[in-house]
Design goal:
The protein has 16 helices and 8 strands. Among the domains are: 81 residues; 152 residues, no CATH class; 151 residues, no CATH class.
Length: 637
């Protein structure tokens, strides 16, 4: 589970509690129905074994579905585990203390630098296909929403477009069929049959379009912006033209080849059996369900578009530095002192780029350069959402679960009616009845039962689609963080500082470095969002940069603290040099006094015998050994 133990929490709330509560209620009701059906098996086995087996199958199905819904709802209501490394990094984290991150990232260090440098946001990818452009023309600011919302909006728009084309084609085809069969032999029968066939085809097509909605929070929808192509629309147009023609030709061939007796029976039976299919009611249910789904998605998408104010600004600063320090101190001081003090909740900063060649800058007038891109630990940003988004999301969640529960109840009713039809069919087979009674007492009620089962499946499909759309808007969590980018390049100078006074006295040497550099710093306050899921990968999802705002105070503070550190360390080195110079001046004064008085040892100086011994014995050692150096006045700094 994505939970790194720590005493301090990130204070990220569980966004799924209400949704989980409503889902648990539905699961509990469905589970109770399943248990009730299973309890009926014992009594049914003694009277009707067929009904007992049907109750067993249906009860097992309801128990499994109820437990799944109840378990999922309770899981959403329970504790929302969030680790100390949440949320996911914007790019690959190259910091020393970075954990093994498996979350996909949409950016890299180069793209983050380009965003702050060019004042742009590559998250807002321009739509490519004409249909996607048409959707973004209706919702101009849809481009600034995260990719799962854009994919869902384009998918719903495509479903609506396909449905409108199919309905328009059905109306035109109905008019054409009516005109073709008007005044012909068997025209009334043909018109009724073809109307029923086209209604059934339209219903099946609309059900196939709307009932199945892919999971908006799948990994593919999070890491890829889908392109809505016109290939599906072309198939809809072709099918709307070809299917009615095929139906008409097929019926014409059948009617012409049928005998007169068959024609007479069809002319009598078709008007009686037309009501049994209930295609009109199912078609209205499919159209209403699609419109409700579109309305809920449209209201929430429109409200979400204005939720975050979109900016693409960044603060910038450029200047030159000249300090008596090694250039590596630029990046180590910035990373380990200045930016470390700006951590949030004592969490390590996200290091997206830490590259420099200052470690090899040890020769005179050698050039160096380096880059660093850092993000301060993101903190949760509470965004005030409009009432339309809040209440539509709540109503949609309730409606989705109610529709799925209503579908389950209708399916139960359909199964109960089916068992009654089976018993009636057995009685008809044993006793025999007329065709008219058989049609009225069996076929027409059986058609109603089939319509109930289709309606149940349709309601469950629409409820599932609406619940998935609402879940997308429940799961979005916003974060705020600071991004800092530094590019620095310059030259390094090395001088050798000799310690000592007399040319015959032992002294030490020390390499001193100074750098002359020019830097360019960028900083921005970023608003990002991610989509949580209830499970083991709760916040291990890609994060989307939505808004970049300039932060002059943060940038001035970071650069100001860095320069203060440079000045303090530079002052320490200068104090050491000043103390060494004072020591050498004191040595000169004592040497002059000793020469004037002729007493060298009284002043702590080297005696002539010791001086001769030093000149005769050469010294050997490492590069940093103590060595005898000729004093040539004040050493260079």
């Amino acid at each position: 589970m994505a939970f790194e133990y720590g005493a301090k929490k990130l204070n990220i709330r569980n966004p799924f509690r209400f949704e989980g509560m409503v889902r648990s209620v539905r699961g509990l009701i469905v589970l109770a129905i399943g248990v009730y059906l299973l309890l009926q098996i014992q009594s049914l086995l003694q009277t009707d074994k067929t009904s007992a087996w049907i109750s067993l199958a249906l009860g097992g199905l309801y128990v499994a579905g109820g437990l799944k819904a109840l378990g999922g709802g309770l899981f959403q209501m329970m504790r929302f585990f969030v680790g100390r490394a949440a949320p996911a990094s914007l790019a690959k984290n190259v910091a020393r203390e970075a954990v093994n991150e498996a979350e996909p990232s949409l950016y890299d260090a180069r793209s983050l630098h380009n965003m702050m440098m060019s004042k742009s946001n590559p998250t807002f990818v321009e739509p490519k296909t004409w249909f996607a452009r048409a959707v973004h023309s209706i919702f101009p600011n849809l481009i600034v929403t995260p990719w799962p919302i854009r994919n869902m909006a384009q998918l719903v728009a495509m479903k609506l477009t396909k449905s409108l084309i199919a309905i328009a084609a059905y109306l035109v085809s109905s008019l054409v069929v009516y005109m073709v069969f008007a005044g012909t032999a068997g025209g009334g029968v043909g018109n009724t049959v073809l109307s029923l066939l086209m209604q059934a085809a339209l219903f099946i097509y609309l059900a196939a379009v709307w009932v199945k909605l892919p999971n908006p929070l799948s990994r593919g929808n999070m890491t890829r912006l889908n392109s809505a192509t016109s290939g599906g629309l072309a198939l809809v147009v072709i099918g709307a033209i070809v299917i009615p023609v095929l139906f008409s030709q097929g019926w014409t061939m059948f009617w012409e080849s049928a005998r007169s007796g068959v024609r007479a029976n069809l002319a009598e039976m078709v008007p009686q059996l037309a009501p049994m299919f209930h295609t009109g009611s199912l078609l209205v249910l499919a159209i209403v369900g699609g419109l409700v789904t579109v309305a809920i998605a449209t209201i929430m998408v429109k409200a979400r578009i204005g939720l975050v104010q979109i900016n693409t600004n960044s603060s910038e600063m450029n200047n030159s530095w000249r300090f008596d320090l090694h250039p590596r101190q630029i990046f180590t001081t910035l990373r380990d002192l200045v930016l470390m003090e700006r951590r949030q909740m004592e969490l390590p900063n996200r290091m997206y780029l830490d590259k420099n060649n200052t470690g090899d800058a040890n020769r005179d007038n050698e050039q160096f350069d380096g880059d660093m891109v850092v993000e301060i630990q993101p903190s949760v940003e509470e965004v005030a959402e409009p009432g339309s988004l809040r209440w539509t999301r709540i109503a949609g969640t309730i409606l989705g679960q109610v529709l799925m529960l209503a579908g389950a109840l209708l399916l139960w009713l359909g199964v109960e009616r089916t068992m009654g039809h089976v018993a009636m069919m057995s009685a008809f087979v044993q006793n025999g009845v007329s065709q008219e009674v058989f049609n009225e007492l069996f076929l027409i009620p059986a058609g109603g039962t089939v319509a109930i089962v289709f309606g149940a499946l349709l309601l469950m499909g629409f409820g599932r689609s609406i619940a998935r759309i609402c879940h997308l808007f429940w799961s979005e969590i916003f974060f705020k963080s600071n991004l800092f980018d530094l590019h620095c390049e310059g030259t390094v100078m090395r001088t050798t500082h000799f310690r000592g006074a007399d040319r015959h006295s032992a002294s030490s040497e020390q390499d001193m470095f100074a750098f002359d550099a020019t830097y360019f710093a960028l900083a921005t306050e970023a608003v990002s969002s991610t989509f949580a899921v209830s499970g083991q990968q709760n916040l291990e999802q890609p994060r989307y940069l939505l808004s970049l705002r300039g932060c002059d105070g943060f940038l001035n503070g970071v650069v100001g603290d860095l320069e203060d550190q440079f000045r303090r360390r530079n002052e320490e080195f200068r104090n050491e040099k000043r103390a060494d110079q004072d020591e050498r001046l004191d040595y000169i004064r004592r040497e002059q006094e000793a020469r004037r008085t002729g007493d060298m040892s009284a002043q702590g100086l080297v005696a002539p015998e010791a001086r001769a011994a030093l000149e005769e014995s050469p010294l050997e050692g490492s590069a940093d050994r103590e060595k005898v150096a000729r004093w040539e006045g004040e050493s260079s700094e």
